[in-house]
Amino acid sequence: MKRKKDGVRAVAFMIAIFGVIGLIEAQTPGGTGASGRGGRGATGAVPGRGRGPQFTGPSVSVRPAAQSKARAQAETLLGWRVGVRTDALGPLTFSEAAAKADAGGMAFVEGVSTQKVSAEIAKNLDYNLTASEVDKVKARLNELRLVMAAYDAGAIPGDEASRRKVFGFAKNLGADMIIGSADAASLADLDKLATELSMNVALVSKDPRSLVASLTGHSERIGLSADTGAWMEAGVKPLTSVAQLKDRLLAVNLRDRSALGAKARNVTVGTGAAELGPFLIGMSKLQPPKIQADWPPMTDGGAKKSEGKPVFITLDPTGAADPVADLTSAGAAFDKAVPPAFYYRISELSRMETITPFTRVPADEVAKIDAVIPRKAMVKPKKARKLLVMDLCVNGGYYHSSIQLGNLSLHLMAKYTDAFVPVFDNDVENLKYPKIKQYDAVFLNNIEGAVFTDPDVINGLLRFVREGGGVAGLHAATWASTDVPEYGELMGSQTGAHKYNGEPGALRIDDPDSPLTKQFGGKGFEITDEFYHYLPTGPYSRDNLHILLSIDPARKDLPANQYTTRPDNDYAMAWIRSYGKGRVFQDGMGHRPDFYESANMQQLIFAAVQFILGDLDADTTPSARLPKK
Known about the structure:
Helix content is about 30%, strand content about 15%. The chain is built from 17 helices and 21 strands. The model is unreliable at about 1-50 (pLDDT under 50).
């Protein structure tokens, strides 16, 4: 029977797939998926939740192969899974309702103990099912490619034996959350069992605010289940109520109504008075982001993901004649409303992740770098220049220990040449328009992760460069926001297969006459670095970029020159381009100290800085349009 509206539930990221042998990143913090390091493109794990079932065999799912980006990002960045209760889709069996959930675009469902399993199995979905019957339920989930994220147990048994059966049954079906009611006296036992079995418990209560106090002293695995519709029926805005639950909200039935009060009616989520967007931001604020205590890390790969609470959100259909269409509309409304909730989280994290201090570079390394830093400007600045330097590796972005060497280099360049003033700051709000206009250019020093999730951030940078500003990316900058194509198009590439920590390679000078490369005297050279081999499926193209340096295709005697992921065997390492009235520089090298100890490489970076600032003129004609030599 569907949970009543009277408040019963009132608080109720690629390398291997491209066939590149040996180009495997050795360290993969933050969880990895098929897309490689740091979970790029993969669903991140959250506390109490594993990677989920591995589906096998034929599929009968009709759900789109690519789920909504917003819904997927909500899970990755916030820990929120979005689905539907299987008894909310009409008087159907679990098997029938699961099919409708799939057709409505949901990847997660909440099983209900009072619902019949199927026409074949006329039993409730509970621990009294036989092993073979449980296997049939699991097979149904598997063929529909659904995950049972939560299990509504109703009244959770008071005796330990029965309680263990409920938990074991739910866990066997893949659920990591039990939703139900329980006596306050049993909270300690529930907490102990939940911790033992790595499960979470979301408690249903008619007075959730008083229940919050009783949870004091218990682990994060014990929380609350909420129903926004119940709050609205009581005349209270969901945003007002959610703030009172602090960090104990684990499950929410997202229901919208035409107005506050008992006389209103249920409407499709996002179309009523629930103020869905502000409510979701309020939920996000209940789980303040955290960063590791030893930030910034001292070693490669040290950036850890800021995990969100494992909140399960069910979208409640309105009871319309077509529940699939109703559920699809609710999902679309959620996808439209939720992005600001994770924009808020990324913005908060950016201010917490302080810039990497160059003062911690060992004295002997400082001496080596100081010895090769340019001592005078290549050209006199046209005016006082301000360079924003960012090394943000947000929410699991792969951290490079060489970041401190890049920051030191920029500091010393400014100190000796007076060509610019560097401002070291990771706050993504600086990239929004018009705030970004206080700078002349932006230097992205090995940034990684979901930096450009917020459209206002990426659009601010794009507009800034298009209107005459400049941007430079060093090494891993092409790995930031790999799901934002506009960023890759701006920088000229995205991702890049490579071998961790580098290997010897030979470079050629594609444009020996450029003021950025004159120091090389037109002669190719060898260097050990982590060379990015930009894939043929990405935006990299000589039709758009003026190439400065590239891997020498004639030198097959060195390991970094032997890869053939591109049919044209074209692997540029540094380039410039015009973008509107502005300027772009990207260098795929800079992983190892060797790069920063090279006078020629430091001259390249300094010239690039003066170029993006607008002081040093350089030909940006795309290489494909230049006459062949």
